[in-house]
Design goal:
single chain, mainly alpha, 67% helix, 0% strand, flat
Length: 70
């Protein structure tokens, strides 16, 4: 338990330093930019292949008939 507390304190200290320096905001912006670019690229590939762009999850018809395990 003491290791968990020590690790939490270290992670909190490092996280605060990164937040204060603006590194987390840069990371978030970079991540959202990469996600947007990947999404556009995927949509373009789907359009070229003529695939349906339906985003509904694929569920097999037999999955609803089975009861959930206890």
């Amino acid at each position: 338990m003491i290791r968990t507390l020590i690790f939490g304190a270290i992670a909190g200290y490092v996280g605060k330093k990164l937040y204060d320096e603006g590194k987390l905001t840069e990371f978030k912006n970079d991540l959202s930019t990469r996600f947007s670019e990947a999404k556009v690229k995927l949509d373009e590939q789907r359009a070229q292949n003529g695939a349906v762009t339906d985003t509904a999850p694929m569920v097999s018809p037999t999955s609803a008939a089975r009861p959930l395990p206890n």
